[in-house]
Design a protein that fits this description.
Elements lengths: L5 H11 L16 E3 L4 H11 L3 E4 L10 E5 L1 H9 L6 H4 L1
Helix pairs in contact: 1-2, 1-3
């Protein structure tokens, strides 16, 4: 089993447009996270890269070229979806 911190899991969910508390955001609707290379987010995401849950890419041309784009791998998508908690009855209604 891959060890992922709560902060890393939240970044992975955000990358994929998932929300553990919103029944309308329980399936992948995007796959990108743009950030600067030196911030805390980048450090957390680099750890996800090291365990195979994310990959690093170049930013699109319309973004600053010193930024970094992270994308979830298929394994990362599966891990993120499998890690979503069950919805409570009030969140389903």
């Amino acid at each position: 089993m891959t060890h992922v911190t709560d902060a890393q899991l939240k970044l992975l969910w955000h990358t994929l447009g998932l929300s553990p508390n919103d029944c309308d955001k329980r399936s992948v609707c995007r796959n990108h996270f743009l950030t600067g290379p030196d911030g805390d987010d980048a450090r957390q995401l680099d750890e996800l890269v090291s365990v195979g849950l994310m990959i690093v890419g170049k930013p699109p041309a319309f973004c600053p070229q010193d930024e970094v784009v992270y994308r979830a791998t298929r394994e990362g998508e599966r891990f993120a979806i499998d890690s979503l908690p069950p919805l409570s009855s009030t969140e389903v209604a």
